[in-house]
């Protein structure tokens, strides 16, 4: 429905349905990004709530947004960066974030090696500067496209490619082994 100026007008029931729809569509992506970025479930839950509060506050403007997923993830990135700026310290990713539940088929020694590798990867990712960490989480872990990552991070696709390349190079240096193997084992 439109008002006299042609702007969309939402009634309370429409708002409730719309925010529930958006929440159901993007909650998992937002939460996964925030838990990887912060390394803390409590913070990720609080920040996820903050993201959807911000989405709710901007609900009337959402009709003008061409890529809602990218916009919501951009809000999540901004919430995480705001937190980072306030605290100015890094939290290591917990080992439970990317725990692989399909390890029943492997020998205990193999499981231990994989867990140690995951810990090393998470620690190395947590030590990356925020711009690199965000692009690694979005591209390497959440598997967003370059275009989607650029929209979320509000930068050019070239900047995403450069930051991703530099982040992987930094991870290779810190971990001293092949990054492709790292991401295969980190899932």
Structure description:
The structure is a single chain. This protein folds into two domains: 76 residues, RNA polymerase sigma factor, region 2, helix turn helix motif (Rna Polymerase Sigma Factor, Chain: A); 84 residues, Winged helix-like DNA-binding domain superfamily/Winged helix DNA-binding domain (Arc Repressor Mutant, subunit A, Orthogonal Bundle). The chain has eight helices and no strands. It is mostly helical and 187 residues long. The chain is globular, with a radius of gyration of 19 Å.
What is the compact description of this entry?
By secondary structure, the protein is mainly α. The chain is built from 8 helices and no strands.
List keywords for this structure.
8 helices; 187 residues; disordered N terminus; Arc Repressor Mutant, subunit A; 2 domains; 70% helix; Rna Polymerase Sigma Factor, Chain: A; globular; mainly alpha
Helical stretch tally: 8
Our measurement of the CA-to-CA distance between the termini, rounded to an integer number of angstroms, reads 45 Å
Low-confidence stretches: 1-11, 88-104
CATH topology descriptor of the largest domain: Arc Repressor Mutant, subunit A
- What's the CATH first level of the largest domain? Mainly Alpha
Computed structural class: mainly alpha
What is the gyration radius calculated from CA atoms? 19 Å
Q: So, CATH architecture of the largest domain?
A: Orthogonal Bundle
Beta percentage is under 5%
CATH superfamily of the largest domain: Winged helix-like DNA-binding domain superfamily/Winged helix DNA-binding domain
* Mean pLDDT rating: 76
């Amino acid at each position: 429905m439109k008002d006299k100026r042609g702007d969309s007008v939402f009634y309370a029931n429409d708002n409730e349905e719309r925010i529930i729809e958006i929440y159901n569509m993007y909650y998992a992506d937002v939460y996964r990004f925030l838990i990887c970025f912060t390394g803390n479930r409590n913070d990720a839950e609080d920040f996820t709530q903050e993201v959807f509060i911000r989405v709710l506050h901007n609900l009337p403007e959402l009709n003008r947004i061409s890529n809602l997923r990218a916009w919501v993830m951009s809000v999540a990135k901004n919430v995480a960066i705001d937190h980072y700026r306030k605290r100015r310290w890094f939290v290591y990713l917990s080992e439970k974030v990317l725990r692989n539940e399909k390890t029943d088929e492997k020998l205990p020694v193999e499981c231990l090696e994989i867990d140690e590798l995951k810990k090393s990867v998470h620690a190395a990712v947590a030590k990356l500067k925020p711009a690199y960490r965000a692009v690694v989480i979005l591209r390497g872990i959440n598997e967003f496209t370059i275009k989607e990552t650029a929209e979320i991070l509000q930068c050019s696709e070239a900047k995403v490619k450069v930051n991703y390349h530099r982040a992987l190079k930094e991870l290779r240096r810190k971990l001293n082994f092949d990054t492709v193997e790292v991401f295969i084992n980190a899932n």
